[in-house]
Queue: 2 jobs
Job 1
Amino acid sequence: MSGTMNLLIGLAMGFSLLALASSRLPSVIRAAAFQGMILGTLPLLLEEKFHWLVVAVAIGTITVKGFIIPNLLRRALRAANIDREVEPLIGFVPSLLLGAAAIIGAAALGSELPLRPEHAKTLLVPGSFATVVCGFILLMARTKAISQVCGYLILENGIYLFGLLLINTTPLLVEAGILLDLTVAVFVIGIIVDRIQREFDTLDTRKLTSLRE
Amino acid sequence: MTPGWLLLIAGVGLVAGIFSAFKSPRVWLAATLAGAVAVFVAAVCMLASGVPWNWQPDFVIGGEKLHLQLDGISAFFLILLSVLGGAGTLYSSEYWTDKNHPASAPAGRAWWNGLLLNMGLVLVCANGLHFLIAWEIFTVCAYFLITRERQRPTARAAGWLYLAASHVAMIFLFAFFALLAARAGSWELGPMREHSELAPLFWLALVGFGIKAGIFPLHIWLPSAHANAPSHVSAILSGMAIKMGIYGLVRFTGWLPTPDSAGWVVAALGVISAVLGVAFALGQHDLKRLLAYHSVENIGIILIGLGFAMIAAAHGNAAWGQLALAGALLHVWNHGLFKALLFLGAGSVLHATGTREMSRLGGLWRALPWTASLFALGATAIAGLPPLNGFVSEWLVYLGLFDAISAHGPAAFAAIFAAIALGLTGALALACFVKVCGVVFLGLPRSEIAEHVHECGWRMRLPMLVLGAACVTIGLAPILFWPALATASAAWQPELANVTLPAPLVTLGAFHLALAALVILAGIFLWRRVQHNGVSRTGTWDCGYAAPTARMQYTAGSFAGIITGWFDWILRPQRHAHLPKKLFPAQADFEEHTPETVLENVVEPTASLVMRVSTTVRQLQHGRVQSYIFYLLLGLVALAILAVMGGTK
């Protein structure tokens, strides 16, 4: 059981690195979407007994993160007629190296933390830390609003992963609420992206400095 | 009529003045003068009867019930406000007319009434919140009056400096009143001397009111603001607005307990302000700036009196404290009167010549006989010469100091020092006004602008005459004003309620009358000699040099050169000299400028340091979202490290 799960989490970490290494926006979106879908299946593996609520959570997560949000982003890409290039502030190789360092650091940190025995042998905690840091790197190192949304999604995936530790105690409503928040956030950002594009003729968030005062 | 109705009439008059300021200058003049007269009558009634007036309607402003109160101290300051306000109002109707200043005169009249109204409100408010509101409004009104000539960059800079300094003062006053309200449990003001835990708040009040009063070294805003404001505004600023700071100090040292060292600190600040104020005044070449520094000096004299009164109050209300307080309070009036007279006189010179630079004036006595005579009267008064009012109040302070010395009390040594400093101040002030009168009114005109001038009209002359007459009256009959002083002293400390008229004051009054009679007799004698023998004009003795010019006269700088040399360590004058060198010297020039040392050497370096640091820190806020996220991450990491380290402990 934990073998499958570790494999999936490892795969998710791989997608974070892929998002860091991609030079085109659609592939960043795709990486974030696949990561979301993989993580969406995890609740099914964590629960020993079959429970329709867990299935509902998994299906909801996969639908929203794997289809709805990426579609919203792609539509924003098309509607705002954005150049597909990712414009990195930190280059792809340094980003990757940072991501790798984050994964190593997260693994080291995970082994230090006093975890419960059933969580100690899984990659849940290191995986979640690594994903959060990769999300942060993506947020910091990219200039276009869409890639920042992807960074935000990956960041959220990391938090979600950490939340799985508590899946037995977290009510369904909280899960559903988080998902709804995320969708609305992406929806709003999609609108903002369009507005920024119209106002500034670019999606470079560096241009937003003119709004600081 | 009760004081309440009179104050209501005054308030209505001043508000009506604000509304008529733009449309009808005549209505404004009448309404404002009526208001001033009503305030004057109300305050005199209160001081004569000795019965405080209280008014607490069920009227809430800002969550606090209105509470107006007219007691001895309020009435004492209100009289000065009404006299100076009335004089300035009439003066400005000729000095700052719609014809000469079409853009700034109408609004100036409205701000003027706002200033008078709110200073009056500060004086009668007995609620901390309303006190602060009125204080802030009068501060802002004064700002707009100072910047009447806002097309001049110096006037804008002066206004800005004034506004900044006033708001620093306001921060301290906010802290003072808020802490007072928090500790006393209410914004209501009143005597609370038994709450000894309120004593430390005095220091906040000292800084807050001290900036407004222009105590050295908090006076940085004062010289440029007084110099650049229109002259009637300078008169009210110097005569009344800085006295609001003194009012605050007198009021709250009377109502609240003070720390043990408070009196000593106030007296020491007084000595510093008095001596250095006059030293800076000697270094000035700008007529109004010079007068402004004399305000610092006179505030110092007032504080010496107040400080020794506070020391005496802390040691069982010795009689010398009473004298010192009476001297301080009377000097509030006197300084208000003669400084306003001098500023109005300076305004008349400025009106006639268009310059405040003393080195371009000269020989104005013949062209401006009224202005020159009245200015000389004010100069005699401010220099503390008998038989005028300046001598009376300084005499009372001296009496207090001498009695403190002979009482061998705790303040004996300090009183010796203060008396010497006061004497030094008087001597320097005399030198300074000899310089002013000599350079501006005597000799020959130093430039063309000083040649063709005309005397001011009666609306500028009458206020000066009234102020001059007040100076003479207080000088000749000081006993008449003793009841007012006694009532105000009793309002400060109830223990001082039954004080007798000091015998030396009676003697002084008689001496002044005799001296005045002698002066008049001598004048009549001289006048008859002149009539009898006739006057013949001849050239000034020129040491055999046949072609003297007006440029060979003593200048303001050369007259005061020796004395300012003594104070070089603090004045730090900037001198640029190209002295004559060869046998047949070609060109030579000399330039001297005394800057505002505290501002340029203390405040500005500190401010630029703060500016540099904050500019550096401000670069962190550049608007790049990516970096903000990085800050966020750094913060999180720092928190995590903190949590982990805290966990291991």
Job 2
Amino acid sequence: MPQPPRIVITGMGWVTPLGHDLQTVWGRLMRSESGMAPIDRFDARTFPTTFAAQVRNFDVANFVEDAQVHRTAGLNTCFALGAARQAWEQAGLSSWKGLNRRRAGIYLGAGEGVLDTEHYVAANIAGWDPSKQAIDGPRWAAAALREMTAMREIEQEPNMPVSHLAREFGLRGPSYNCLTACAASTQAIGEACTILKRGDTDLMMAGGTHTMIHMLGVTGFNRLTALSTSKGDPTKASRPFDRDRDGFVMGEGSGMVILETLEHAMARGATPVAEVLGYGSSADAFRITDIQPEGRGAAAAMTMALRQARIDAATRRADGRAPIDYISAHGTGTKENDSIETLAVKRVFGPLAKDIPMSSVKSMMGHLIAAAGAVELITCVMAIQSGMLPPTINYSNPDPELDLDYVPNTARPAKVDVCLSNSFGFGGQNDTLVVSRWNG
Amino acid sequence: MSRPARRRVVITGLGPVSAFGVGMAPLWQAMIEGRSALRPIARWDASGLPTSAAAEIPAELFDVKSYVPKSYRKATKVMARDIELAVGAAHEAVRDAGLLTKSMEGSAEGATPTLSPDRVGCHIGAGLIAADIDELTTALYTARDEAGTFSYALWGTQGMSNLTPLWLLKYLPNMLACHVTIIHDCQGPSNTITCAETSAALSIGESMRVIERGDADACLSGGAEARLHPMGMLRQVFAKRLAPTPEGVDPATVVRPFDPAATGGLLGEGGGILVLEALDSATARGATPIAEVAGYAAAQCFCPDTVGVMVNETGEEIAAAMANAIADAGIGADAIDAIVPFGSGIAHLDAAEAAAMGKVFGSRATSIPVIQVMPFVGNCGAGCGALSVAIAAQCLRTQTLPARINTTRSSLVANAAPSSSARLGHILVSTTSLGGQTAAIVLRAHP
């Protein structure tokens, strides 16, 4: 039986609240910096949550060949273009002319674009018939056709980032967008690997992009009581695994990787930065509002990814180390997620769980929703390359129930060869990736 | 190049949902008779838009409560229309496949499901689900300042609390799959693909691969969308994809794929879920496959306008997907006996598809029968591909081509014609999205 091809990452890029290039963001994560501040994109001063981690000073024109081509792009698409350009450059693809574009695809876990709130709200109010408590169709249509603009609307479709990337980088292979809430970009990278393994493509651009830092995004999560409503210093609000955690803090941005079969990467002389060893995916099939309380689905995704990576979760490696070196937690900072994720990790690794450091960069850059998984996979690769683990900041009061090593507050040197990255979405979607050092 | 023998995937259940109702029987009957469901929209007064007709599911033909177990009825309150359609479709597919799942009425408490829940996956394509405009505006209206203008400050203090706490969960695209996986207890790999009209075809392709590589034994697979609400229609108007429906014109006659006189498409609500199953699993439980999913491929079109409202008219990438799907099925193009194209009546898309057929089939392109979908049930967005595949499977099972309507001057075999019997071994299904994602699926008659 022939072995399936090995899949390597040859390029990475991100646009996050802590910066727009690999080293700047990594440096700030190492210094335990926070990207949280009061929201200034719209007036959220009276909202239950008034702060978020926004991407700042980002100009897509620095990342594309011709900004005119993307002039109608939404913010999510701009972030994607920025992250993808970095990955493309790192992979050496801008200077290589041999790419078979038919065998180069895209798999994103991108979120929808931002609603044109101002004009949408104006049209709805203009079209409202208070006596019927309903929209008056013709009056609404007249207002909507007057207020809203075609491209602003079309660019909100969730497949628009894919379409822009395909155009910018000339990719013509299979292209997908999945939107499985907060698990989306982990799933996208995992599915891209399966396409490569089957031999259907040579190269895939994969990752995610999202922003929900807009009026109805904050409203939606506030109504769900999923966001931190802390009244103090915003940089202290995201407290994954801490006893006093009270919800997540919204971030935004994009993470992108270039994935290739090892054979393709080697043939063109590319340098792999890491190898993707395993991918697991499961559904809780429990409730739309709650996570399965024993972490059944989360554990299933981790187990599947480890099995594919041929890693025995119950056995130490020959040198005495735990089976893996680091877990990039989903770690949102909600009561429920952090408890059940801890439970699921213990379910998978048993007594060895306590020897595996697990941190959440969401404590520093917030929750990038659909884009979170891709950015967190990149932090795993950065940890492998730098021999440093990013911390969970704002960890000041241990929760007696949560007894793993969360890399509290300060970055830590460690020998890092194999990492696991978890993403869990609203509605019970679980995805896990296992990534390792490229050993040549 | 020969591939190693791979696990074969068949369709064992069809759950189409269309303006004709739930299930294949009413849809097929209408297609045999050449009856379109396109008519003026009744649900809201769309007369202010240049297009005000669509294929709506009449209220008497669809009540989501009849597709969920009693214990789950409360959850129907947080289902957008798109979610309701997926839940109805999944129920029908599971019933049609003869599967016993956790939720099926009549199953005794604690009865063993036919398939192990962790071996059942779920891939359901979804669209950009718009918020219910009346519900949201009721709340927005309470946040006007003295001048009558919307105020963010008032929204924060008094407006947003008028929305139900679970408001956001009605509109997350992955909620189609979430509710379906909960109701039928599917714990295997699950995904929500959001590539506009190609979503369902990409989902079916992904399910096929998941089963093929052994990560599941069966998947509930397809897509659903309901864009007949104001925002959904407005976006299509903005994208110039809809045919005008002036007074005096019968909407049933408007959609004419591949006709030089075509003026655009019309929308429908619907889609479908299919049960895709490993042939070994179907055989073991004594199920009769409806058709085999023999080949699949996808590609991305070059779009001169970046976002893919306009798709490259050479049809080059659509042809690549078709050719790769045919090769994946291990057959030659000459083995394709009929084709279910996207066939939207949107002129440049029809032209791209016709060009692609020319590239793949050469001179045969003008003699392969075209099976229409959109003239009957409209463009069901993320549900399109699932309806097309379900219809193709039904054609193979019955060895029948349904009627074609409206088109009169096509150079393809696409002009109006009554239903006829035909010898059908393989049918090719193709879909291309607003955005340029394109996918092709080859179905094979079984056995």
